[in-house]
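Design job #97: recover the sequence.
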């Protein structure tokens, strides 16, 4: 069977990261200086689907790095409800692969009228969104044919890390950015397929993350749905201990993502709780966890760990889809570019 497009495109992530970092170096440095002078009161974001999951990673990254609140705005505020927003103290960041969805364009126009500095993280630089924002930054992922986004998702995460590093001038973030292409390459060598293939008969599962990893848990849950038709739900390691815990029992699958930071202890505790209830736990990031240990590159910075977990996951999800008799590149009812209102 030929290799899935999804797998081939995910394998380009290291090259994409290196190309993007080089291409955006000057623009990011200028934007960082501009933002330090502007001193915005908060950050507003606009995205859908995988791009929104990348923005959740960015939310925690920017909030922890800069001490500024980050709010995800619903595009329907502009496209359906026709609301005007006061964003005079904000930086507005829109992330899009296509840059063509009408609701994202309308919300960006609303943000500009509301006084925000608008920034776009965009893969198609010939798109309307690229021409609309004040600062357009290319994801440089190149064409992505598989319906399920991979390299463009990881490229959005790298762009957000680059932005955080340029804005904050934190050396540790700059160092992590420099290391990201090589660590993404290493993550591509981490084989998660033995675990994922155990899910061949699964009908539902949880993906659990925390902090920077929550958006990656959301992204993995989406991929389980669209490529494998498994009803996967993403939860934070805190929220899953409320109502969702009632579904957990013998053999229930749970994929847990270690955040490699201050949230690790509580995340490990959740994994142990699940294992005690009989769940089949797979844990990415710590050999001390119960259940199946999923490999990740050693000695990785915490800010990169979620993206590395996503890269390793992308390398195996197509095998699970194929084992279930599905085409991971062409999910039913879906198109590559979804234009919503």
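Job complete. Output follows.
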């Amino acid at each position: 069977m030929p290799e899935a497009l999804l797998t081939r495109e995910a394998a380009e992530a290291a090259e994409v990261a290196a190309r993007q970092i080089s291409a955006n170096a000057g623009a990011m440095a200028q934007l960082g200086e501009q933002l330090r002078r502007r001193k915005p009161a908060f950050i507003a974001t606009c995205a859908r689907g995988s791009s929104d999951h990348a923005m959740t990673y960015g939310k925690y990254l920017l909030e922890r790095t800069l001490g500024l609140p980050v709010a995800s705005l619903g595009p329907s505020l502009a496209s359906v409800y026709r609301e005007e927003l006061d964003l005079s103290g904000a930086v507005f960041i829109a992330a899009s692969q296509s840059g063509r969805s009408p609701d994202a364009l309308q919300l960006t126009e609303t943000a500009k009228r509301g006084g925000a500095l608008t920034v776009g993280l965009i893969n198609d630089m010939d798109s309307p969104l690229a021409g609309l924002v004040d600062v357009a930054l290319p994801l440089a992922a190149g064409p992505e044919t598989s319906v399920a986004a991979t390299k463009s998702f990881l490229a959005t995460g790298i762009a957000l890390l680059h932005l955080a590093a340029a804005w904050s001038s934190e050396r540790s973030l700059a160092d992590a950015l420099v290391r990201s292409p090589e660590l993404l390459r290493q993550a591509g060598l981490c084989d998660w397929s033995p675990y994922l293939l155990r899910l061949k008969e699964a009908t539902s599962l949880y993906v659990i993350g925390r902090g920077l990893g929550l958006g990656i848990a959301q992204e993995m849950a989406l991929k389980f749905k669209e490529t494998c038709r498994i009803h996967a739900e993403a939860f934070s390691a805190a929220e899953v201990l409320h109502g969702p815990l009632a579904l957990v029992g013998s053999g229930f699958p749970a994929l847990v993502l270690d955040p490699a930071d201050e949230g690790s202890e509580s995340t490990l505790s959740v994994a142990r709780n699940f294992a005690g209830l009989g769940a089949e736990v797979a844990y990415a990031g710590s050999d001390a966890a119960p259940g199946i240990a999923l490999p990740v590159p050693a000695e990785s910075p915490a800010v990169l760990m979620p993206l590395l977990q996503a890269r390793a996951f992308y390398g195996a999800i197509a095998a699970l889809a194929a084992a279930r008799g599905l085409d991971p590149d062409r999910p039913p009812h879906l198109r590559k570019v979804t234009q919503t209102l």
